[in-house]
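Whether sequence alone determines local backbone shape is best considered at the level of individual chains. The sequence in question and its structure tokens are set out directly beneath this paragraph.

***
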Amino acid sequence: MTGTERADEARYSGHDEQIRHRFDWAETSPSEAVSRVVSVASNRGVTAVEPLYESVDLGAVDQLLQSTSSDKFELTFVHDGFRICVQRDGKVVATPVDE
């Protein structure tokens, strides 16, 4: 999502209740992208989402995804009731975790 895109433009796949969106890491940090996608997936504002730093090291997430040269690299973790998959190519997917 660029500055002109809205958070609700992330796509609902309808399959597995996934929310997905592709970002440009030059414009949006991976940690900010995760917060935006979880916000859409949970139907809450970005400020109402559990702080990402409670689940992962923000600096490590950003550095790993912005500095890795392999497009096949991905990072998966659980945050605020969602399994988050962040890929090097900019794709972020949030899937609800069964409790």
